[in-house]
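Repro case for the chain-ordering regression, as requested:
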Amino acid sequence: MSLASLIQVLPATVIDGEALLDTAVASLVAGIFVTFTASLAIYGFATAAEMRRVDRDLAAIAAGALGVVSMLAFGAAIALGLAVMING
Amino acid sequence: MDGDIVLVIVIATALVFDFTNGFHDTANVVATSISTHAVSPRLAVGMAALLNFAGAFISIEVAATIASDVVDAGAITPTVIFAGLVGAIAWNLITWYFGLPSSSSHALIGGVVGAVIAAVGTAAVDGEGILGKVLIPAVLAPIVAFTIGVIAIVIAYRICWKKRPGPVARGFRMGQVVSGGLLALAHGTNDAQKTMGVITLALIANGNLPSTGFEVPTWVIVTSASAIALGTYTGGWRIIRTMGTRIIKMDSAQGFSAQGAGAATILASSHFGFPLSTTQVIAGGIMGSGAGKRVSAVRWGVAGNIVVAWFLTLPASAAIGAACYAFTSLFGDGAAGPVILSGLAIMLGLTLFAQRIRRGQPVPQV
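-- result from build under test --
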């Protein structure tokens, strides 16, 4: 049984199913997105270092750019999460 | 006059609970960072203390839930809240003594509910509020954190598995500084608010605040934030060992995934006003990041002990809360009962603490 269908069968007067579902979805999206962007940033920077060692400058720049963009996305996700929290 | 004395005792006890909450739950926040050597133990604990303090100012949704959705504020007295707090502190100290990462939040809710039942019966307990705002989120949150932990570690390994382990480990350790900070902030946001809620409830019960509407006075926010930060800085090293090394032996990618899973779940729940157990959520994230690598990597025996402690927390703290209320009522409705129980609790707590420090290993050599 999926989370959504589980929440639907719980008594509506007792459980705020929508808030619970929103919480679960927001947690999943935030947790997975943050890990994805951080992993991609690490991958980009590690690849850039490897490419520089074998003098493949263009590939190093591309991988470094991927690292920077991913890190910015990681930072933006955290900033957005905090802004949502602080502004209620 | 008696009412004011009891109120002062309640506020002091609530702040002691907040301190033990920070002390007890430090492990949740810093264990993964310490066990993967992302930061030194002292730095991790210091950073967690600062961010716990800051986190307490972010939201008051959880405090509102504690003060208005668990028990009927109009039907309880400061003495009832005091007995509930003693129940919660006692359970926190018992689980700390045995090194079990149980839930301070559920201990608090259980203690207050037990004392309310002993004082006025079940009529003042908001069963629907407890089910909808506490019990069901309590079951769902660790499952959500576990799921995020599994998915996150699979993503991290899939993306980085062909890279040299050194730079990848360093990268995730740096990421852990951020995710550990977020987790500390999330902990402060969710857990300090529980104490704010209880103090606000006591102020309402004593007639210092109106029972209609809900507003947490600024001094309550500041003192609660300070108490949890101080408790966090003092640290609960026994539980750090259990959380950091005994559930799974983790690498930095797993530590990052577990902390990210925990922080995301707690921050989202705080935003919607669900008073979660940060302990359960983070343990769920740790188990998920272990199981995502290899199911047998999780020490399921240790995980099982933790789950047993979770199930025991609400009834055990409720029973202690009820017993404390029964004891204080032996001395009448005045301040005598809370004063005597406070004295006894302080003596017992100090004895237990001294014994544990003598026998245990207060600071691990990481």
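Ordering looks correct now. Residues 147 and 288 of chain B are 6 Å apart (CA to CA).
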